[in-house]
Amino acid sequence: MSHPGFFQVFRRLTILSLLCCAFFPGKRVIAQTPAPAPSAQDTQAQPDATGKPAQPPPSTDNQEVSSRDTPTTFKVRVNLVLVRVVVRDASGKVVSGLKKEDFQLFDNRKPQTISSFSLETPETRTASAVTSPGAAGYSSSADPIAGKAIVLPQRFVSMVFDDVHLSMEDSTFVRDSATRFFGSLAPSDRVSMNTTSGQFAQEFTDDHEALKKALFGIIPRPLGANGFHDCPDVGYYQADLIVNKSDGQALAVATEDAVQCAFGGDERMAAQAQNLARAAAFRAVSAGDASSQYAYRHLEDIVRRLASMPGQRVLVFVSPGFLQTTIQSEASELVDRATRSNIVINTIDARGLYVPDVMGDISSPAHDAFRTAGYKASYRVAAQSAQDDVMAQLADGTGGTFFHNRNDVDEAMREAGAAPALSYLLGFSPQNLKIDGRYHALKVSLTNKEKFKIQARHGYFAPRSIADPAEATKEEIREALFSQEEIRDLPVELQTQFFKKDEAEARLAVLTHLDVKGIRFKKAEGRNNDKLTIVTGIFDENGNYITGGEKIIEMKLRDTTYDRLSRSGFTVKSSFDIKPGTYLVRLVVRDNEGAQMAARNGAVVIPY
Hints:
The structure is a single chain. Helices cover 28% and strands 28% of the residues. By secondary structure, the chain is α+β, with helices and mostly antiparallel strands. It folds into 2 domains: 6-75 and 469-606, Immunoglobulin-like (Sandwich); 155-225 and 265-411, 3-Layer(aba) Sandwich (Rossmann fold). Strands 2, 19, 22, 23, 24, 26 and 27 form a 7-stranded antiparallel β-sheet that branches. Strands 11-10-9-12-13-14 form a 6-stranded mixed β-sheet, with helices on both faces. A 4-stranded mixed β-sheet has the order 1-25-21-20. Helix 6 (236-243) crosses helix 7 (248-263), helix 6 (236-243) crosses helix 8 and helix 7 (248-263) crosses helix 8 (270-307). The longest helix has 38 residues, at 270-307. The radius of gyration is 29 Å and the shape is elongated. The protein starts with 5 loop residues before the first helix and ends with a strand. The relative contact order is 0.19.
């Protein structure tokens, strides 16, 4: 089932949050968020829309209701396997109109029950990018809000350059291509730039000139010494064959190289040469693993950052590729995280249309012995092909596209900036899943046996430990907070008000009204018991998280109190000190007994 987009809701609200009122008419405020140096606006009852004073909070002397603020920290846990699928016909056109029963899903060749199914298009993840402020908000100075339209972001594109593995030639090539990419951006697009070295970052912005200037920061930053040749010279791919796969031929080739470079071709030194070859292989594997893992860790951080943005999320990964001999599990977890966060990863081979370098990189030519040159050339060709695997895995697993073997990288970047026109999101809970960390192969097919091309992730890794229920709940709330969807399991209303302290400071109040009749209570010891978690997030107009808070409401209501609140409901108030500007408000409520959730979106404009 599709849900209204994050910004479509803002249009529907049309700044309802700016109505001049402090509390909902006829509703009780039972909890307020303590903030630093609270003003009278937070501690005293304000008039409602009718001009009558709001009712004071009910007494909590008997501990029927208690409130506490908690830090909002979350950890990621994988509880459900999600598989994003893109189906194309023979001409490459995306196939629409498929339903859950049209798909079959296999885990290690065993058929699985598809427990969740949704159809996703860019329109379902985003909505209109423009909303217009209407009435003035509640302000101490009573300044009206300017009537101009507010441009809100509808698409977030994070461009990630793999400067750990890029060559100088490749970095120049992709910088030039990226410059032309910016001309295709819409006013509602926000773009950030990051690198896998972590040494350069440009936050999300719509300033094209700032993005173009930021491109000059994209330069190669390899971890190890560039152009250094060991004796013997063993590449990462060959070293992996020797150390991790016990390949005798690869070791013999390295040993012969050591005989030539260290002992002048004296075959009597073969034993010593083999020791040198093994040592060189271990050094190469260690350096290669460190480089791949270093790049991957920063890529994970960038995905987490992008996951916190509202609306459509696209990651464009520009890299020559790298070997993933030690990060297969991490790659699967990254695909899980991106899929859950509605992030499409498009990958671009920075080498463009290339011919395998059988003699090594032109900037660092190989020095192969005559007897081993052919073997070494084959290893280099195989390595350059294997480097594509990680790029294809990230794209296939998230419904993205792997752009490779083409020189029109600028066109590839324009195409990569958008999510697929249509994709299907399948979810399943693996049957009899063992908590052993092992790899599970996935296969998706169609029941009608149509010869369509199916793009989907190829597998996942089982968890190594059972998810803690409390952490799983935190992750559920975190995902809802940074999502674009509205959830209506609980009857919750959102309203905002603000009070300007001066020209530079304002206090924003987020009011959460709950209908008690829609909450599931547990009856114990003559009380109606439940616990609510209320999480609020404040984002700026570029979608950047500004501030937020979490409140726990403990309810142990007597029947008389429950009856009274069932008629009026109650309102919880949270206050935040912010600067004037345009803000997006995201509210998530979860109850403990019914394990139900509600999520609402709001917008507020505080005039300067």
